[in-house]
Amino acid sequence: MALKNTYRRNVASDGKLEMSLQEFKKWIKRFDLDKDGKISKEELREAIRANGGGWFSRIIKGGRGIKAADANGDGYIDENEFNNLVEFAQRNLGIRILSY
Ligand SMILES: [Ca+2]
Ligand SMILES: [Ca+2]
């Protein structure tokens, strides 16, 4: 299956990257390589390799983003925990998630 780059990158005048919640989730889900509905650390690492770092690598650095998002501590980010990742991205990564 070809992974098409469907999310848009919009940078606001204050330098923040803007995307909708839907786009963000869709984007994160591209990294769910085994399609079990959860993102593992390994899948995130793979994602960094494929994307060559960028702001996304900052989510993963030292597992900080995962720790912040992984509410039940099982090492995976599941559907419910995506929202925590969204929070983390907004607080720490200069990303503005637009909800509409
Ligand atoms: Ca997975
Ligand atoms: Ca979890």
Automatic annotation (TrEMBL):
<protein>
    <recommendedName>
        <fullName>EF-hand domain-containing protein</fullName>
    </recommendedName>
</protein>
<feature type="domain" description="EF-hand">
    <location>
        <begin position="66"/>
        <end position="92"/>
    </location>
</feature>
<dbReference type="InterPro" id="IPR002048">
    <property type="entry name" value="EF_hand_dom"/>
</dbReference>
<keyword id="KW-0106">Calcium</keyword>
<dbReference type="GO" id="GO:0030234">
    <property type="term" value="F:enzyme regulator activity"/>
</dbReference>
<dbReference type="InterPro" id="IPR018247">
    <property type="entry name" value="EF_Hand_1_Ca_BS"/>
</dbReference>
<dbReference type="GO" id="GO:0005737">
    <property type="term" value="C:cytoplasm"/>
</dbReference>
<dbReference type="GO" id="GO:0005509">
    <property type="term" value="F:calcium ion binding"/>
</dbReference>
<dbReference type="Pfam" id="PF13202">
    <property type="entry name" value="EF-hand_5"/>
</dbReference>
<dbReference type="InterPro" id="IPR011992">
    <property type="entry name" value="EF-hand-dom_pair"/>
</dbReference>
<dbReference type="Pfam" id="PF00036">
    <property type="entry name" value="EF-hand_1"/>
</dbReference>
<feature type="domain" description="EF-hand">
    <location>
        <begin position="19"/>
        <end position="54"/>
    </location>
</feature>
